[in-house]
Amino acid sequence: MQSNYSRLATQVKGVLIGSMIMGSLCASSSVIADNNISTPHAVSEGRVVNNQAATFVNEDRKNQIEKLKQSAKRLNNNQSVSKPLLIDRDARIAAYQQGTIALPELKLSEQKPALTKNATKLNQVTQLQVQQQQQTYVGYRDFSVYQAHSRLFDDIDQDGFYQTFSVTFDADVYGYTLNEPANVYAEMYLSRNGGPWEYYYTTDVFTIYGESEDDDFEVLTTLSQGYKTDYYDVLIDLYEYGYTDVVATLSADQSDGLYALALESSDRDVIYQEVIVEEVVIVEGGSLSWGVLLLLFAGLFSRQVIYLKNHN
User: Fold this and answer.
1) pLDDT per position as a tens digit, 280-299
2) Do 29 and 45 lie in a common domain?
3) Which neighbouring-strand residues pair with 184?
4) Cys-Cys crosslink for 209: which of 179, 243, 250, 270, Cβ 3.0 to 4.6 Å?
């Protein structure tokens, strides 16, 4: 009898230790999930939305968002993704001034909306002359990002934080003639809850015309990984193509449309899942009262729910 109780005590001790280890693993997995933050990455696409506004229908936007989400999924599955170089805003501004960051490509054929498939050689020559003339103005005109607004898309787990968002802004140039054109591009930054500005996208070069309201530019972005569930501010740095300094800036400090966007990356925007773990121990013993056995089994059966998503 004594040997049976000793064996039972040893088994109970082993089960208790196992339960403690399991609980410790569950707790540590939560800590690891919180601390193992992926390198921030986002996928973006930008385009001028001036006269295209009439055809910028919901279906078109839906397809664009789905395209970005698929790109984000492929990025999340790529284990060899490296951290983007120079995500700090001050470092990027200095790099532009030093010429160590390559400029976006200037696509001449896309700079004048009037050009069509039937454009004549004369029109093409005229457009080239316009571009050459613009180069003489580089660095001598004033610019502003007049206004900006944002929209949020895709909250799969319905927690109030979104993985996809858009920023639309209107840049103006104050030149020497009415509706004078200028080639510009923008650098986009995010700040988490008042933290440092971190780079996430550079637009293509596009053309603005004086103070026109028909040359807005929209950047649609899906945060793929590494962005905690929180509130993010947006900053836009505008560059004139061919000039190394920032010519205009707009941020959440000046525009409510760029302030406190409720965001999280797609690797956090998932539905809650539950994993049920049941522990069963079979005890061999001699003459042991049924009451003790019932108490033992009541203590040994437990359910532990591990939440696969941690917001913080």
Assistant:
1) 555 555 544 555 555 555 55
2) no
3) 206, 240
4) 179
The verdict on residue 256 lying in a domain is yes
How many secondary structure helices (H) and strands (E) does the chain include? 5, 12
CA distance 266 to 14: 41
**Is 20 or 235 the better-scoring residue by pLDDT?**
235
CATH code of the domain containing 67: 2.60.40.10
DSSP helix/strand/coil, 228:
coil
The pLDDT tens digits for 38-66 are: 678 888 888 888 655 444 456 677 888 88
Closest CA to 262 of 204, 305, 311, 202: 311
Per-residue pLDDT, 68: 85
Does 312 fall in a domain? no
- 197 and 82 co-located in one domain: yes
- Domain count for the chain, please give it: 2
Residue 219, domain member (yes or no): yes
pLDDT of residue 197: 97
Long-range CB contact pairs, 194-201, < 8 A, 24+? 194/233, 196/88, 196/89, 197/88, 197/89, 197/235, 198/40, 198/87, 198/88, 198/89, 199/84, 199/86, 199/87, 199/88, 199/89, 199/92, 200/40, 200/42, 200/44, 200/87, 201/42, 201/44, 201/46
pTM for this predicted structure: 0.69
Total Cβ atoms within 10 A of residue 241: 19
Residues 63 and 210 in one domain: yes
DSSP string, 27-47: HHHHHHHHH-PPPPEEEEEEE
Cβ-contact 215, 208 below 8 angstroms: yes
Q: What is the pLDDT of residue 123?
A: 46
Please tell me whether residues 28 and 105 are part of one structural domain: no
Domain match, 184 and 50 both: yes
Confidence of residue 309 (pLDDT cuts 50, 70, 90): very low
Paired sense of beta strands 261-263 and 246-251, if any: unpaired
Residue 75 has pLDDT above 70, yes or no: yes
Domain limits for position 156: 40-263
Reply yes or no on whether the pLDDT at 164 is more than 80: yes
